[in-house]
Amino acid sequence: MAVRYIPYFPNTLEGQALLDNFVRTKRVLRYRDNDHVVENIQRGMPYYEVEPVEQVGDNPQHNMVLRGECLSACAYLKDKGVKVDLVYIDPPFASGADYAKKVYVRNNPKVAASIAQAEKELDNEELRTFDEKMYGDIWDKERYLNWMYENLMAIKSVMSDNASIYVHLDYHIGHYVKILMDEIFGEDNFRNEIIWKRSTAHNDSTGFANLHDSIYYYSKSADLYFKTPLVPYSDDYIDRYYNKTDADGRKYLDRDLSAKGLKGSGYSYVWKGKSGYWRCPLTTMERLEKENRLYYTSNGTPRYKQYLDEMEGIPAQDLWLDIFAVNSQADERVDYATQKPEALLERIIKASSDEGMVVADFFGGSGVTAAVANRLGRRFVTSDINLNSIQTIRDRLIGGKAEFEILEVKDGVSLFRNPVQTMDKLKKMIPGLCDNEEKLDKIWAGSIVSTQYGVMPLYLPNLLDSSSRLLDKPMINRIIREALPDLPADIRRVIVYYIDITDRNDIEQFIKEQNDQTTIEIELRDLKQFLDDIVVEDDAEWEVSETHDALFSGWKVTINSFHSDRVLKKIEEVNLKGRQQVLQQKTKGKEKKFVPITISDEGLETIEWISLDCENAEKNQPWHSDVEIKRDHLGRVCLNGKKTDEFWDGTIRCDKKPLRMKIRNICGDETVWTL
Which of 227, 361, 638, 651 is 20 to 30 A from 378, comparing alpha carbons? Predict the structure, then answer.
């Protein structure tokens, strides 16, 4: 349970939007059938215990990577008195899309003992891959806007007075979110809607092809930091205007030196037989002549040479056509589904922050915001609820030589790699739960059957929606007023799981008082108690030896075997699906080839990353990586953030005696062993 809830602001704003039948701030509660005030409610950001996971470098700037949702991250920052100067967020777009991570099975290290053989294998064998769902961007409008409202309120509460925020969205929901931002930050603090052309032209059979995203730029106050960024000239612009070239190859455009049309009289004198009014005095004209800065027209009129190589560019406007999406061959690509280009964040960060300021991203994703902020000399705070995202950010920052701390919000429900997987697992792990949502209202996750009570509909809080995390009177009242009356007449009991609860005794008394429309009993269950000790860790066998030879002196850990139950089950699912598709095609008279994914007895192909800690022996202490190896999808080694052309040989070496080892499997699970 949350230690406490931290308010967004000491005093709430007036006139905040009612986005649902209830809202979760310190506001009046109204229901859709009337405007009767039922109760005043107070909510805020859930503050949980936060544990350090890893320390990278000395970290004098106190850079932070937080695994946790936006509200919890903001609660931690506010509790610690941390203020951020610039926020960029790329939240879900409510697009209805499912996003997956491409999982690659690495090559066998035994094959990599011979480079020629390994390369031959990689040339001839198709890469073995499968997809694993990261999150589903599936929201109904009202719940999404409630969720965004809470997030934006929380973010505003940790912004400095001169801070700015950029919210990256598309056409699905962006216009609604702008209305929220008008309310939260004030219409007067709206600065720009930036249009980013993220895609090249393509056909759309039903309308005009969508090529752009919108980025809504607001400040917290009128006293904001902003420095107009300069954009390099386009090739078309150069060809059109800088179309003259000096003998030394320098491109230039010629500018008028006459004072015609200029306010004031200019400077009157005769220059090489040309009399008139000029923009500069005679002494300047003489200097320009000596410097070869004058260009003469066919009738002898002097004009000023403005060289292209002396110009930084033109001020950026609100239409960004010159920044391209990350392609498959880009060096910055990290194989993250919604990765944004570094050039996009570089423009934003340079415009709205200075060196030493704090840049924050509460939907960290691929880690682009933190990576660019670090490169540009800013401090950074980034968070994400998805473990794969945290790992991607961490590895990317390691490659960029950043110093930072990784912390984890201990909310009791951060199982597996992401909330989607946890929700899917929950439905499978709850004994007897039947997925019959189509027969029930959408508020129910399904039902279980009891010999005593018969069919019992079951409510699970949505781990993707922070507004459902706390079971309070508004939430239970919604279940009582909306969900119970619509249930079949033979339902006698429902089960309501919760993550946090305001006061269980108080909620149970409230149920007794308010549940007068039906005879259905409500049973409350603590979800965190159910989730304790259900995660099965991976298994590994290894040997540790001290090695001294002509090439290396130190310690070597040899991995003999590695087995991940969850990875193997995922591969079994992929293989089963492939075989079923082959059979289906055969029934239609079609031939479909399917090569099942196979793993060696040693199982080392399922290792993505391995690290040694020579500082701490206790399993739960913050991690200190003295040496680490990451294998790319081809199996080549990235040693301590530096790419190589080497293949992994099944070992990892370090100068000092290793005390702990951490292995990450190809799906993203990490397990720590004491050596």
Answer: 638
